[in-house]
Design goal:
InterPro entries: Cro/C1-type_HTH (IPR001387), Lambda_DNA-bd_dom_sf (IPR010982), MLTR_LBD (IPR041413). One of its GO terms (molecular function) is DNA binding. It comes from Rhizobium hainanense. The structure is a single chain. By secondary structure, this protein is an alpha+beta fold. Helix content is about 40%, strand content about 10%. It has 11 helices and 5 strands, in the order ααααααββαααββαβα. The chain is elongated, with a radius of gyration of 22 Å.
């Protein structure tokens, strides 16, 4: 038997509870009465499309999940989902390519909502040399799996204990925010990989004084240390675009910067 379609109230209640908000707390956050919210969740009142979008925005509901909410309320979906090679997304794809290329000689890559590699600049490939299981570097490439797999980059990450903890916590936060079952399954897989032993002493003090968790990687060019940033599109109205992110890695010390410039001669560092 098919499961009955979920009501708008079911959707709203699930996202409100996911955000750990009581009806009163969310009503205050959304600037509506608790009675009105209660009526919407129980199906006794149907909000306008504008009110529904306002509630979804206040709850931080991903664009992908707002379309089912609209359908449940009797409205047409408003957020398209196009493939990245769709002509409509050509300006966004050019922006991604410019960001990746402009970041050379430092590594940068674009990923989708499931951490699948979409694109990478020329500085990424040299860092993957020596990966034992070459299937990890063949499409579709999952960046988290490649990083933490015992036959991937993990054996060459010298601070694997803290880097692994950082990635798994970031993934948990993403699952909490989106409720994505694919990510939940990925977390289960990654958590089952052999865990590195905890360091016997505190991590050594670094030049950046504990402001971020670095990625410390042994490569053919020596021991490299990176800080990372994440860039997303600020005002997307397309589902695909809203789920894209660019991971940019910056050298955490002068030695890493020099090694990266030597790996890609002729490239200018960002800002130069």
């Amino acid at each position: 038997m098919m499961n009955p379609a979920r009501s708008l109230g079911d959707h709203l209640r699930e996202w409100r509870q996911r955000r750990r908000l009581s009806q009163l707390e969310f009503a205050l956050e959304a600037d509506i009465s608790q009675r009105h919210l209660s009526f919407i969740e129980s199906g006794r009142a149907l909000p306008s499309r504008e009110m529904l979008m306002h509630l979804a925005e206040r709850l931080g509901v991903p664009l992908r999940e707002r379309n089912p909410m609209l359908l449940a309320a009797g409205f047409a979906p408003v957020f398209p989902e196009r493939k990245l090679d769709d002509p409509a997304l050509a300006p966004a794809r050019r922006a991604i390519d410019m960001l990746l290329k402009g970041h050379e000689p430092f590594p940068a890559l674009a990923i989708d909502r499931h951490w699948t590699l979409i694109a990478a600049n020329a500085a990424v490939a040299p860092l993957l040399a020596g990966v034992v299981d070459t299937s990890l570097t063949k499409g579709p490439i999952n960046v988290l799996r490649l990083s933490l797999h015992p036959q991937g980059l993990a054996p060459r990450i010298t601070n694997l204990f803290e880097w692994r903890a950082h990635l798994l916590e970031r993934l948990r936060q993403q699952i909490s925010a989106t409720g994505d079952p694919v990510l939940a399954k990925l977390l289960e897989e990654l958590s089952a990989y052999p865990a590195p032993p905890a360091p016997k002493s505190a991590a050594p003090e670094r030049d950046f004084a504990g402001i971020a968790v670095p990625l410390e990687l042994v490569t053919e060019a020596g021991h490299l240390s990176f800080l990372s940033t994440t860039t997303v599109f600020g005002t997307p109205v397309d589902v695909t675009l809203s789920e894209l992110a660019i991971e940019s890695f910056f050298p955490a010390n002068p030695q890493t910067a020099e090694a990266l410039r030597a790996m890609l001669p002729g490239s200018s560092a960002p800002g130069e």
